[in-house]
Amino acid sequence: MQILRFLAALLVVVAHVGIEVEHISETSGRPFALFHPLDWGVGVDIFFVISGFIMFYLMHDRFARPGSPARFLRRRLIRIVPLYWICTTLMLLSILIAGQLVRNDGLNPAHIIASYAFIPWPRADGQMGPLLSLGWTLNFEMFFYVVFAFALLLPRRLGLALMFTGFCALMLIAPHVPADLWMIRFWGDTIIGEFLLGIVLAMAFLGNRRLGIVAMIALIVMGFGLAVLFFQTGSYEVVPRLVTGGIPAIVIATAAILGPSAPNNAFSRFLALGGDASYALYLTHPFTIKLLGALGLKMGLSLTGIFWLGLLLTVIVALLVHLLVERPITRFLNRTFDQPGPRPLAEKASLP
Fold it and tell me: Domain Acyltransferase: where (predicted)?
């Protein structure tokens, strides 16, 4: 699963590095075009499926237990908030200091506050992206965490039934509410159904459902094949995200999580470390790309060279941020505010 998280983050990074280099190509007149066999954003869909999986896996035996919802939310806030606030503040400072170099739509106090609070809020251009634009995924994550915490107040079957029913109802009504009810329209995007797919996958895992190597490979090929098919046929423009992104994501995640474990060797451990740093990779890569693009042009690097160097440097920077910033902060806050008691995978449960 950790390797899958690294892969999901890399898919997003490929898209954003390619977009930045294409922007450089447009302004400099030098040719470059990113290869698009599929929507690289399917990495986000994989993240959401994994998020649903991890949350249920961690808490499946904690429903209706006193203090369980509060502890769940506390751990989620400790894991998600610090690095996101650091990166959001860096983006705010970048706009204030060098706004002409950063693509933005101006600053609005309400929008800034909403960005820090994980609340969807319209920008000056009417879009719902927060100050750190890729934080839109975290707005969905936090919504899922809050709803899941309420479900933990109840017996498991009742809590899950209400959450599944509520999410389905929200997805059905969201397209039909007035535009000024933007929070409902935002949170009712069908992408929230991917959290539910992850919960179902966790149920299968806890029920000892497993796949052989042949089935795992077949599902991986099928998942990416569907992602290519949906993108190449333009299905993303007319079919809900739960289908075009969610189906490939759940197929790929099922293969990775229910299939045989990765071999215990140095390469696998490095990829797993990349999974640990996937949150840092997701949040920091826009800054790395922007700096590299400016420096690469001054150094006379080819656009293809900037692209591949960008992929490498985003991973290196993310590993450093994870090891030197994210992990120490998380451990300190857990020691300070969290109650003792081991929870499997708890340190690794985070998503964009």
Answer: 3-321
The single-letter code of the amino acid at 324 is: L
Does the predicted TM-score (pTM) go above 0.85? yes
Of 29, 27, 38, 19, the closest CA to residue 249 belongs to 38
Domain that holds residue 260: 2-348
Contacts of 262 (CB under 8 A, 6+ apart): 3, 268, 271, 272
Smallest CA-to-CA distance from 80 within 335, 342, 341, 334 is with: 334
Beta-strand (E) ranges in 220-306?
none
Encode burial over 20-47: b for 16+ CB neighbours within 10 A, e otherwise.
Answer: bbeebbeeeeeebeeeeebbbbbbbbbb
- For 16, 20, 187, 278, 306, the CA distances from 299, given in Å and listed in that order, are 21, 17, 44, 29, 10
Q: What pLDDT, in 10s, does the model give residues 68-102?
A: 999 999 999 999 999 999 999 999 998 888 765 55
Q: Which tens digit of pLDDT belongs to each residue from 181-204?
A: 999 999 999 999 999 999 999 999
